[in-house]
Amino acid sequence: MVTADGRHYIITNRHNVTGRDSRNRPVSDTSRMPDTLHIWHYDGDGRRISWRKIIEPLYLSPGHPAWFEHPVHGAKVDVVALPVTWTEDVTFLPHDQQSYERTSVAVRVAADVSIIGFPYGLTGGGALGIWSRGTIATEPDIDFDDLPLLLVDSRTRSGQSGSPVIFTTGGKSVPTKDGGTMMGSGDETILVGVYSGRVNAESDLGFVWKASVIDEIIAGGRRPSGESLLP
After folding, report:
1. What digits encode the pLDDT tens for the residues 143-201?
2. pTM to 2 decimals?
């Protein structure tokens, strides 16, 4: 989840809301398309931890999706932004989608990252995600396959699509963008991007859409046509 211009958005993969890949092929054995997204919001008060499920509609009306896609690449970018409609009595803990651009830390190839998701539907307790470790496998500042994309090397599994991919400094010495080194960096968390699955079933390489696509999608305000979602 992120916040932009005072509004909250669920960020996930396009194939999670359509049930179909970028070539409009079913991603599972069933060709059914989902019409709602179930969101577990944190509902604690600092002394206790609890969760509240909110159901968000995926369509404004039949054939008219509620989510935004990338304004230039469309379905080729497997990331969407769904405006949150329910804001009462829930707590929002958004990621900073601009942290990668703002930080002075250099997130480089071979850096360790965390992929926070729900492999095989498992949770880390309550509705908390499980942290999987990965390594950046391509240069983050170079687009992979001419798209705003990089690869990670990680043993991810089903249920991790749409996971945030983050880099944490953890107080270690880290390189900086100006070529220096930051000593005792504190505990900075940087959103690198959004995970969207492996390159194929036999590989541990996975796709990560760069965090920059999030603001591009929200600012573009492009909703797909119902016709483009048909089998």
Report:
1. 999 999 999 999 998 899 999 999 999 888 899 999 999 887 678 999 999 999 999 98
2. 0.92
Q: Under 8 Å CB-to-CB from 46, ≥6 apart: which residues? A: none
- List Cβ<8 Å contacts ≥24 apart for 97-101: 97/2, 97/4, 97/11, 97/191, 97/211, 97/214, 97/215, 98/211, 98/215, 99/189, 99/190, 99/191, 99/211, 100/190, 100/191, 100/192, 100/193, 100/210, 100/211, 100/212, 101/211, 101/212
Q: In whole angstroms, what is the distance from residue 108 CA to residue 139 CA?
A: 7
Alpha helix ranges (H) inside the chain = 14-18, 99-102, 212-220
Token pair listed for 192: 């690198």
Give the C-alpha distances (Å, rounded to integers) separating 195 from 9, 170, 206.
Answer: 17, 22, 7
